[in-house]
């Protein structure tokens, strides 16, 4: 069992209990997580290839043109796992620029669909490099809104170190679990703001034997998942 495989399972858990909604993802590990969820505990989940095809067991099961996605977003029947260049304690996301927006040091992706996603339906995040450069006190530009700006629901943040959620009175970020071999101190040191730390922090669930077989033999036989995290 590898760290990447634990992250696949942690991403899959983000969609547990969602029902027949559209699962969208940015990045290979979240995509594998959505497909793993669909293949195991969430058979009703709709999984997209990121373009116009709905997938089941790696095969096309339907067509989803881009124009239809806007109706799904507005109806709230989607849960997307996005990435973030910066993320703050309330789940405000930046994928636009680093530095002041008037004269940024780095130009990134613009805001893309982040505003509509975060105000209309559940959103989670996948961060393959947990560091203070990503988890910042204040994002340089708000692309996706957080709970202090009336986000619909920022559900989970899965990183290469831990799983975080917002189960706090003010809906700020909380450490939910650490991956095997990671300490609470490791996560605190890699976070640029003060996290809520519960009295007891559990270990992230590891893949079952059946899940490992699915991941290794069917979902990602080329082992590309190992290249997504350090």
TrEMBL record:
UniProt organism field: Actinoplanes derwentensis
GO MF entry, a single one: CoA-transferase activity
Domain of life assignment: Bacteria
Keywords assigned: Transferase
InterPro entries named among the record's database cross-references: CoA_trans_fam_I, NagB/RpiA_transferase-like
Gene3D superfamilies: Glutaconate Coenzyme A-transferase
Protein name, as recorded: Acyl CoA:acetate/3-ketoacid CoA transferase, beta subunit
Family per record: Belongs to the 3-oxoacid CoA-transferase subunit B family.
SMART domains for this protein: CoA_trans
PANTHER family on file: ACETATE COA-TRANSFERASE YDIF (PTHR43293), CHOLESTEROL RING-CLEAVING HYDROLASE IPDB SUBUNIT (PTHR43293:SF3)
């Amino acid at each position: 069992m590898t760290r990447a495989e634990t992250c696949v399972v942690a991403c899959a858990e983000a969609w547990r209990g969602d029902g027949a909604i559209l699962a969208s993802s940015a990045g290979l590990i979240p995509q594998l997580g959505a497909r793993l969820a669909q293949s195991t505990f969430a058979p009703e989940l709709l999984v997209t290839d990121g373009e116009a095809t709905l997938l089941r067991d790696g095969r096309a099961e339907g067509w989803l043109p881009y124009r239809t996605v806007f109706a799904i977003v507005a109806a709230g029947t989607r849960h997307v796992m996005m990435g973030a260049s910066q993320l703050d304690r309330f789940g405000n996301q930046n994928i636009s620029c680093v530095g002041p927006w008037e004269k940024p040091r780095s130009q990134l992706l613009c805001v893309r669909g982040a505003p509509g996603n975060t105000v209309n339906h559940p959103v989670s995040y996948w961060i393959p490099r947990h560091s203070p450069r990503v988890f910042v006190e204040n994002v340089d530009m708000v692309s996706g809104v957080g709970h202090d700006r009336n986000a619909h629901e920022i559900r989970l943040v899965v990183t290469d170190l831990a799983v975080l959620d917002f189960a706090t009175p003010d809906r700020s970020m909380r450490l939910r679990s650490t991956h095997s071999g990671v300490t609470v101190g490791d996560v605190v040191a890699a976070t640029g703001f003060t996290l809520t730390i519960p009295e007891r922090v559990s270990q992230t669930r590891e893949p079952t034997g059946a899940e490992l077989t699915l991941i290794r033999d069917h979902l990602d036989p080329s082992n590309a998942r190992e290249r997504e995290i350090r």
